[in-house]
Amino acid sequence: MAQPVVRLQNVSKRIGGRTIIDRLTLDLPLGEVFGFLGPNGSGKTTTIRMMVGLMSMTEGDIWINGHSIAKEYEKAIRYVGAIVENPEMYKYLSGYDNLMHYARMIPGITEHRVHEVVKLVGLEGRIQDKVRTYSLGMRQRLGVAQAILHKPQLLILDEPTNGLDPAGIRELRDYLRLLAKEEGIAIFVSSHLLSEMELMCDRVAIIQGGKLIDVRTIRGAESRAETARVIIEVDRPQGAIEALQASGLAPVQEGEQAIAIETDREGIAAANAALVAGGIKVYGIRAHVKSLEDQFLEVTGGESIG
Amino acid sequence: MGNFLQLVHNENIKIYKRARSWVMLGILVASAILISILWLSFGGRDTSMWEVMSTESMILFMLLTIFAVVIAASSVAEEFASGTIKLLLIRPWSRSKILLSKYVSIMLFAVLLAAVLFASTWLINWICFGINSAVSLDETQQMLLFPGSSGPFAYMLMYYGMKLLSLAVTLTLAFMISTIFRSGALAIGLSLFLLLGVNNFVLLLGYLEYEWIDYLLFMHLDLTKYIGATRLEDGSNLWFSLGILGAYYVIFVALTWYVFNKRDVAA
Ligand SMILES: Nc1ncnc2c1ncn2[C@@H]1O[C@H](COP(=O)(O)OP(=O)(O)OP(=O)(O)O)[C@@H](O)[C@H]1O
Ligand SMILES: [Mg+2]
């Protein structure tokens, strides 16, 4: 793992005797899209608020590039770009004036950079209009624009796909992956859209009731090698079973017109070859991969808000 | 680190890009014109321009105070109400400096309002009453009871100066209330109530013989009475009043900055 750009150590938050975040410890390396997953009210936004210094920590500390958020806020925060909950902007100003407002707060951001970012988030056509007239998705894009204006090393996005259309979600996803890989920055995304996280993230932390309960790797060799239950639709299930048994697999019948095997990616190709060689007609192959959603519900026990 | 003036520039934009600030300036100038024209049509030209200017300034400074309090009270409260405070604070600036930039922009706006009021009442009344004036400067002097030998222009400047000093304290109070309670409406309401309501009530309190009454903020907000005489017959004196105002000012500022720095932003 690369050098961690963000380190949360034993971070707790208590408000009025209630523990909202309970001893959270996390390391985020550069170049990774890190998902922060949890049901409503689990403490995602609270954690993000502490990471950007909007809320104080009751215990523990957060380091960004080696600078403590609690003790050296101004140094630590300059590496961070963020959206916290909804990206609220000054409605009476144009999108452009809003971006210039944030640009003025950090030395070295040129107008050229502002235009570049506007183009990147696809707002060229409307950037001179007042934010009052923007749709939710356009505001979200403007929010992303202000977060990446100063080329941060850590990008924190609280439910960034909220309000985006499918094309917008796809663009954002691709862009975030590009930022992580090409620019090598760390991206921290919170969401309760599980399928979304699966497509976007390298690793996902699952939080519930303020406690970190699991950190999983989504991409990479590990998940490829995992076996899955594969359903194959065929014309003659009995013949298919025999053909597969002959090539060393252990199929079972699945309904009238299908069989099921437990295998990995290579196994699927081998099984298909064996069936075709055995003169069996194959109508369809479906791998039933356990989705993050299943895993998520498994881990959190499908519990309600709490 | 960056340039603090850029922060003030941002806050200025938030004031001047909104119609309401310009409406306020417009109302101030229009009221001055209106009063002068009414005076001219009912009283004739037999008046000194300084007398009209001084009366107008006295009335319109009340309006100016209301306008300035509205701006002072909304600066921080609106950032919380709209949620923009989150994106404003997560920049490489301390909260103290961000708050200071807001404070500076409010004070600049108050000075602008006062300058516009001064210039417009002066110009309008010069046009209405000053050109080929029927009143001599001596008569003016007697009418307004200008203290000492200072001319009317110098007197008006001093008048505005004293008004601005107490306005600064009032605005700091409104700024404090809005920062602590994060509610613009409350800050406007409370400051104006304290100012207009309690202020008159407190004049009655002044007749009571309690010692602590001398230490109330509201006993010292009218500094214009000290122009020409720093010590008055009723025992009040300019330096004591300035001392009391200064003490309140320091407390207001300390509380405001302390609360703003400590607060969890969960808007
Ligand atoms: N200022 C506050 N005072 C008291 N409790 C709070 C405060 N802010 C949040 N909480 C509580 O902390 C818990 C976590 O809230 P948080 O907003 O972090 O959840 P979340 O994971 O972001 O949820 P969502 O998915 O709905 O956005 C909730 O139970 C909430 O009621
Ligand atoms: Mg949230």
Automatic annotation (TrEMBL), chain A:
Taxonomic superkingdom: Bacteria
One Pfam family here: ABC_tran
Domain ABC transporter: 6-234
Keywords carried by this UniProt record: ATP-binding, Nucleotide-binding, Transport
Transmembrane segments: none
Entry GO MF terms: ATP binding; ATP hydrolysis activity
SMART domains: AAA
Family: Belongs to the ABC transporter superfamily.
UniProt protein name: ABC transporter ATP-binding protein
Species for this entry: Paenibacillus arenilitoris
From TrEMBL, chain B:
Key word Transmembrane present: yes
GO MF annotation: an example: ABC-type transporter activity
Residue stretches in coiled coil: none
GO CC entries: plasma membrane
Keywords for the protein's UniProt record, in alphabetical order: Membrane, Transmembrane, Transmembrane helix
Transmembrane segments: 21-42, 57-77, 98-124, 153-177, 184-208, 238-260
Keyword DNA damage listed: no
Protein name per UniProt: ABC transporter permease subunit
Organism: Paenibacillus arenilitoris
